[in-house]
Amino acid sequence: MTAPTRTSTRQNPLSVGGATLFMILFAGYFLAPVWWLVVTASKTRAELRASHGLWFSGPFELPGNVADVLGFDGGLFLKWMANSVLYAGVGGAVATLVAAMAGYALAKYVFPGREAVFNVILAGVLVPTTALALPLFLLFSEVDATNTHLAVLLPSCVSPFGVYLARIYAAASVPDELIEAARLDGASEMRTFFAIAVRLMAPALVTVFLFQFVAIWNNFFLPLVMLQDSTLYPITLGLHTWNSQIPHNPDLQLFVIVGALLSIVPLIVAFLFLQRFWRSGLGVGGVK
Amino acid sequence: MTNREGAPAVAHAVEQHETGAAPPPSRGRGRGPVPVRPRRRVRHGRAVVGFLAPFVVLFAAFYLVPIGYAVVESLYTVTRVGGTFGRATEVFGGFVQYAAVFSNGPFWASIGRVLVFFVISIPLQLGLALVFALLLDSPVLRGARFFRLAFFVPYAVPGVIAAIMWGFLYAPTLSPFTLLTTSFDLLGPDLVIFSIANIVNWIFTGYNMLIIYAALQAIPPELTEAARMDGAGQWRIAWSVKIPMVAPALGLTGVFSIIGTLQLFNEPLVMRSVSSAVGSDYTPNMVVHATANIPNYNLAAAFSVVLALVTCVLSFTFLKIAGRRTLS
């Protein structure tokens, strides 16, 4: 697509049409549920069952439905959103900063045990996070800290994968000469890192942040194990509790649908705007 | 399903161990800012400690300690002092919990179930991801940018939300796909495993597509150009040049999928509210969760340890097999 030789070769229109049609069909598969969500969240309760799910029907109720969801149960939904933003935003930011420092140290300094440290961190990537949730709960309960924001936030601040990425990026994007020059100018190692290395690693750090943000935003098991107080729930756990109460309270059905839509909009918007970052991040991981 | 972004990292490291910068000459071991023995001092030792300490402390507190704690917990057992109604105390039980794990039918049944799930979902998921990536990379497709984005959108939907959404789509009351939902009981005991597989594939196919696509983009253009000069068509180029070149990336997505499938939890748990065919011990993680809720933490810890070991063994076996094939 970028190489001029490619565009100059004429393709068989039949294969162009066939390939495009094939992809359009699957685009329908991937987008239809999200479309259904938008359409259904815009309906009144009466229209929910009465009309076809893939097209609008009746008055456009989306703003009203959103207001209802936000106001329900003393603004519980907004609390969940705020909690998710707190867990994912703060957790992602701390995890990124800490991983950047560690990755930088592993890439740019030589010290005994460097590879051993790196390998232990790498093994951490393989540990299923769900296997950690239960012992974390027991440990937090020993210090009476379950059912708090910190119980979810603190474990979210660790990203072994982030260290791995940061190490590669630091090795690739921060020239040794620059560090030496900063040293000759009398800058401390910390200062060199924050003033020079962080800037050079910035695109990579956005990737690390995004991955961790998504991982925390999607996390369900840890909050499920840790939290009992529904005002501490992140959005995933909150919507799940509403969803499992539908048999007793059918009115919640529309709230769950509208809430699901509201909860995925921030991530989709973030993904669209930060495309070039996550794409390069996946590239580093996936290319041999 | 969490932590799926980790697998490429691991395989990357397995294949290419040294990623660090060119090492300056080592000055041997020793630490601390005070140059008591300058001969054995590490260059910028204090800075290294400063950079590493925050992560190492967090990693130790929230990875290493919990793992150690789970292992210790799994070696204990609860007995009641002074008869059935006595005070419960934890005593060292050796491998009692592990014996219980190995004779626990539902746990092994759940492992068998996720292996079946793997066979149902992953070949299709990775096969489609490969086809999509090849099409994105080939000159025959128009609008590649749009498709790349559209297929990746579901990855932004948390597994719990996706399962809630698909739960509505599967149930005849709300689903727009009435023909499908009225002719098949998508939430019944026969088909529910396919329904869950569909949710997982919906989320992750686009993600795996991007990993493979990134690998395709890294193939030197001269290689495909040479094949084209030799008269190879797009099919031939894809089959004989591109697919062998992205085999490592495919291997990684495979490891990913193994880890993800064994950890399966969110989607089936949510499906429980719409399908009676999904039991509380449907997947290994659900067994762990249910056991912890009893509460029987010691047994739950033993389950966790065994599950983590099974995951590691399967991942490494897969990496070994995949690695050998890509080398030969």
TrEMBL record, chain B:
Matches recorded under Gene3D superfamilies: MetI-like
Entry membrane topology: Multi-pass membrane protein
Domain ABC transmembrane type-1 positions: 111-318
InterPro entries: MetI-like, MetI-like_sf, UgpAE/MalFG_permease
TM annotation in the entry: 47-72, 114-137, 149-171, 191-216, 237-265, 299-319
Family annotation (CDD domains): TM_PBP2
Keywords from the named record: Cell membrane, Membrane, Transmembrane, Transmembrane helix, Transport
Region (Disordered): 1-37
Annotated localization: Cell membrane
Top-level lineage group: Bacteria
A Pfam family matched in the record: BPD_transp_1
Keyword Manganese: no
Family of this protein: Belongs to the binding-protein-dependent transport system permease family.
Name the record gives this protein: Sugar ABC transporter permease
